[in-house]
Amino acid sequence: MSGHGPRATGDWPQAAGADGSRHLIVQADHVSRVFEMPSGDVVAVRDVSLDIAAGDYVAVQGPSGCGKSTLLHMLGCVDTPSTGSLLFEGRDVAALSDRERSLLRLRSIGFVFQRFFLLPMLTAAENVELPQSEAGVAAAARQARTRELLHYVGLAARADHRPSQLSGGEMQRVAIARALANTPRLLLADEPTGELDQATGQHVADLLDRVNRDGTALVIVTHDTTLAARASRVVLLRDGSVEREETR
Ligand code: ADP
Ligand code: MG
């Protein structure tokens, strides 16, 4: 680990084990997602196979409507495949109860969205504390972790601000701190720079780089070519299928 993070990660295996094997976080095997609509079935994701390993930095790209968000929701165990199988650290996500699935998300997966989705009535610190409260972390530990995370994202001085008192870039940095609150193994981001101007977007991209270097696997859906250029793997989707996968 690069050492500057507030233990953004835990002690789970890093990208390659001593024997060179990859610690797989997500294994999506021939996954499809079909939405049944009155006007007919919509195949949002079609027969996608994709592995995400510890330490990975994957960008998902493709035209609007090609299934990027739907795929991300399945990788993040928010949604389950219509067909195919999705394993999260070896567990079949479709076989979990709703409660098991929400606990898995709470403890192992962080989400960052284009529109931040911070709770407007809570301060930056309270927003970062919330997922820790939900995970049952005691108040003192929660507050210490929150301070550490706000420092990590460069917002120690904004702890008491509500979202309306923050800039877009600051809101996104709080959202990243919130996503890291329970030290997830996997951070998923859907167009995280989509609402930001270029300079602010770069700042957020730098922060996401650091999160990845500190050991959290990252999957980012983005139209932003400079953001995608930072990824070590790019998955290009078209009409729900993987058109191309590039490794750098
Ligand atoms: P992207 O994120 O690449 O823009 P989405 O994954 O949001 O694409 O959507 C892929 C396709 O699936 C689109 O045609 C969209 O209209 C459809 N879709 C997404 N979510 C739903 C849903 N909940 N119900 C029905 N259709 C959906
Ligand atoms: Mg989308």
Task: Give the arrangement of secondary structure elements.
Elements: E1 24-37, E2 40-53, E3 57-61, H1 68-75, E4 83-88, E5 91-92, H2 98-108, E6 109-113, H3 124-134, H4 139-152, H5 168-179, E7 186-190, H6 198-213, E8 217-221, H7 225-228, E9 233-238, E10 241-247
Parallel strand pairs: 3-8, 3-9, 6-7, 7-8
Antiparallel strand pairs: 1-2, 1-4, 4-5, 9-10
Structure overview:
The protein is an alpha/beta fold and 248 residues long. It has a single domain, classed as P-loop containing nucleotide triphosphate hydrolases (Rossmann fold), CATH 3.40.50.300. 31% of the residues lie in helices and 28% in strands. The chain has 7 helices and 10 strands. It has helices spanning 68-75, 98-108, 124-134, 139-152, 168-179, 198-213, 225-228; strands spanning 24-37, 40-53, 57-61, 83-88, 91-92, 109-113, 186-190, 217-221, 233-238, 241-247. It has a 6-stranded mixed beta sheet, with helices on both faces. The protein has a 4-stranded antiparallel beta sheet with strand order 2-1-4-5, with helices on one face. Strand 7, helix 6 and strand 8 (217-221) form a beta-alpha-beta unit. The chain is globular and about 50 Å long. Mean pLDDT is 93; it is low at 1-5 and 8-14.
